[in-house]
Amino acid sequence: MNKLNNLIKGLSLVAILFTITLSPSCVSNKKIAYFQDIQSVNKASLENTAEFTEPIIQPDDILTINIFTLNPQSGAIINQAANAPSLGGNTNTSLSTQNGGFLVDKNGEIELSLIGKLKVSGLTTYQARELIRNKASDVYREPNVQLRFANFKISVLGEVSAPSAYTLPNEKVSILDALSLAGDLTIYGRRDNVLIVRDNNGKKEFARLDLNSTSLFSSPFYYLRQNDVVYVEPNKRKVSASNSAQIQTIGVIASVISVIVLAISSFK
């Protein structure tokens, strides 16, 4: 009889453990709200925030270049070439969108009509613009140069509403801007462990940001660079939901054990 009682207790314990396993994980509100360390709801200020540094032009970048002169027809040669189709895009689109621009070749150079080849890799857009303006002064009278990236691309992956690659017209893009483009994090996204993957001169750099803390604003990864990848990791609740088939199997096993326990108890 003692062995039977011990068996019943053991099976009951197993059934309880399976039931606990089946219970859904809860997401604490403390893990959802951003910047929780801001104490005052009326006013708050931060010091030592991250400074924006202009992105550096690299090989395979695409630049939109327009030259304006006192004679509009003289700059039309370059400006018309800039309208030739190449890889690029606009805000909130994927890489399939076509846009004009000049491709920076493997040597870091671009080639402009009447001006020739110019090495622009390693320069900021401001420095490249001044370089082109100085060279264009030999050909055009008082040229005005506009230059920006045509393929300033970031990728947002993981637990966001609209994961995709986004090509932006603005070089000054923060991690919050990127997440806004992707429709913000889902309820299943970990806000305390957002991964940034960055290609720096052929080497990969990694950083993890905590959106729950205002320390985010002082991170050197707060402002993104072209080709950065933002990955939002799923939380435990999402992982549990993804294993629905396994959970159903466990539920069947737990039900069988409960029936066995009741059957043994009836013969006691």
From TrEMBL:
InterPro entries in UniProt: Poly_export, Poly_export_N
Keyword Membrane recorded: yes
Pfam families attached to this UniProt entry: Poly_export
Domain Polysaccharide export protein N-terminal: 55-148
GO molecular function: polysaccharide transmembrane transporter activity
Keywords, sorted A to Z: Membrane, Signal, Transmembrane, Transmembrane helix
Membrane-spanning intervals of the chain: 247-267
Name of the protein described by the UniProt record: Polysaccharide biosynthesis/export family protein
Organismal lineage: Bacteria, Pseudomonadati, Bacteroidota, Sphingobacteriia, Sphingobacteriales
